[in-house]
Amino acid sequence: MGSYGPELQRHLQRMLPSDADAEDLLQEVWVRALRSPPDAGPGSNVRAWLYRVATNAALDRLAVDRRRCCALDGRQPELAPEPEAAPDDLFQQLSPAGRARVRERVAALPPKQRQAVWLRWVEGRGYEAIAARLDSSPESARANVYNGIKRLRRELLDVWTKENDR
Amino acid sequence: MSGETCTYREDDVLAYVSGELEAEADLEMSVHLAECEECRESAADFRALDCVISDCCRDEAIRWHVFPSPFGRMFVAATSRGISRITWRELDDAGFEDWMAAQFPGRPLIRDAEALAGLERQLTEYFRGERTDFDVEVDLSVLSEFERRVLEELAEAIRFGQVIPYSELAKRIGKPKAARAVGNAVGANPVPIVVPCHRVVRLDGSLGGYGGGVEYKEWLLRIEGREDLLKAG
To answer: What backbone phi and psi angles, to 5 degrees, belong to B192?
Structure first.
């Protein structure tokens, strides 16, 4: 597994603005790999798994930086000196009014989309199960999830942008 | 390498973040995200959304179910804390969902027979005369503290087949002069039958009102062997 080190580091360097960050995250990837190693049986794809873990770690770091610096206008996010927030804290970083706005937007999703998003993203159900619950086809269940998530993305960017403009 | 044309759509990135790609395609997308800033931003947003959705909806889902009963279609709903609604009055599925959405704005409504199977079984047994007690948690958090106190006392103290006058219930919660307010609190009961508001009657022995329709109050008291009260009313 360690033989993938150099290419993973290059991968992280391409995703992140700072090489120090990349090195940092590579350590996290190894920790994660040691804690819950990927299935090493035949047909498994350790390389894909490692890339996935590294990519997710980088995306989470980017999400935090992006919110903090509000780099939506294309500025390179500057590395903030304060300790990194976990992505779980993103919601908590919003003001109470911001959180209320987020709740309103989630609430304003069409009922089927809201339920589908909930069942998929919070409860982790498969599309067959969601379709049974919504009395629809799996394809339409998936479309409801995707459309709901894409809409929420736009809504949340909007809330976050307003929050950072203040 | 911005400037290169990206052939992936937002849906492809979402499929990746959702973990729905095969290993080869998954790896391909990992590599692509290092190259394409636009897709990378989408992916970072979607990852962040995961936390937001569970954070702002945690424990907030309301599960509901409808099943046939002697009273007609019985609608029941529960939060993570307990049963929050029981009703059987003239509602179709959409009407019930609309009503719940108005009562609990912003909370996801999920139709879930499994989550409410226990309550369905217990209510069915009660209607058949095979059960005198309900073993379920209730969530009365939409009510005021006073209303909750009245209903908790009622559920705790007045068992199957017993009745209590409004004024007596007022005394039991230490507010002997608040019989009318107690009556209003009993009327606000969102979980009839399980919290037995049908067991509260007038001091003169007449039945008094019932939110679900007084004929159902009579029916419930008959199930509990109190035909004697019906003649008096």
So the answer is: -60, 165
Across the interface, whether the CB atoms of B30 and A48 are under 8 A apart is answered: yes
Domain ranges of chain B: 10-57, 62-127, 145-232
Span(s) in chain A for CATH 1.10.10.10: 94-165
Q: What is the ipTM of this complex?
A: 0.81
CATH class, range B145-232: mainly alpha
CATH match for A2-73 among 1.10.510.10, 1.10.1740.10, 1.10.10.10, 3.30.1370.10: 1.10.1740.10
Distance of CA A49 to the CA centre of its chain: 16
Q: What residues are paired with B47 via a beta bridge?
A: none
Q: Which long-range contacts (CB under 8 A, 24 or more apart) does A95-103 make?
A: A95/A163, A98/A159, A98/A160, A98/A162, A98/A163, A99/B56, A101/A159, A102/A155, A102/A156, A102/A159, A102/B52, A102/B56, A103/B56, A103/B106
- Mean pLDDT, chain A, rounded, equals 79
Whole-number pLDDT of residue A63: 80
DSSP character for B179? H
Q: Is B21 near chain A, with CB under 8 Å?
A: no
CATH topology match: B62-127 vs B145-232: no
Instruction: Tell me the per-residue pLDDT of A15-36, one tens digit each, with 9 for 90 and over.
Output: 998 888 899 999 999 998 888 8
Q: Please check whether residue B107 touches A, CB under 8 A.
A: yes
pTM, rounded to two decimals: 0.61
- Report d(CA B11, CA B25) in Å as an integer: 14
B contact residues 40-69, partner A, Cβ 8 Å cutoff: 40-58, 61
CATH class of A94-165: mainly alpha
User: How close is the nearest chain A Cα to the Cα of B128, in Å?
Assistant: 29
What pLDDT, in 10s, does the model give residues A111-139? 788 888 888 988 788 999 888 877 789 99
CB atoms within 10 A of CB A162: 12
CA B71 to chain centre: 19
**Count of alpha carbons within 13 Å of A105, Cβ hemisphere only?**
22
